[in-house]
Structure prediction request, 231 residues.
Amino acid sequence: GAGVSQSPRYKVAKRGQDVALRCDPISGHVSLFWYQQALGQGPEFLTYFQNEAQLDKSGLPSDRFFAERPEGSVSTLKIQRTQQEDSAVYLCASSARDRDGEAFFGQGTRLTVV
Amino acid sequence: AQKVTQAQTEISVVEKEDVTLDCVYETRDTTYYLFWYKQPPSGELVFLIRRNSFDEQNEISGRYSWNFQKSTSSFNFTITASQVVDSAVYFCARSTGAIGSGYALNFGKGTSLLVTP
Prediction:
């Protein structure tokens, strides 16, 4: 596609429910990032993939968060046993090889845990 | 994490005024990248500029200009003759590590710019 696509755009989950958020990066982009953005704050880094390899997951807040990119394209961020503090916008971004930081962002998935 | 500080939370200007958004960053690296991103109400962050720490030349792109001062660890962004369409949240960011090692970004908290007619 032309840009980074994320689905769903909005998700309401009951506390304790598992959720899966999907990201379709720009075709051919090697690098893929997940960020979490709380209301009124800047995005916070969660994890980074280069192709299918997860090179950095230091930003994942707990072991309830898990991300994968099995074929080096589409990525899924899974949150198990959601808590209210997980409510945020989850942003996915991709970038081309050798274009560190020049990322194209999706519109995000707004997760609300009730 | 090496912090990025955007001291201005909100700025409101009238169309055609010039406005400068401040950014100060921490760094323990000798090489790094700095960035500005724009987040309009639609929510999608839009890349505006990347500068590397080697290059302190100021840059101008149309109505946008950036002033990088390594001595004060600042990377300020000026919009000349602001327009209503410039209304958005603007984020300053730096690479999490040295060039070639830090692929992710540390973002500041953002400055919300409102341009009124």
User: Anything to note?
Assistant: The interface with chain B takes residues 3, 31, 33, 40-45, 48, 50, 55-56, 59, 89, 91, 93, 100-108 of chain A (CB under 8 Å). The longest strand of chain A covers residues 88-95. The radius of gyration of chain A is 13 Å.
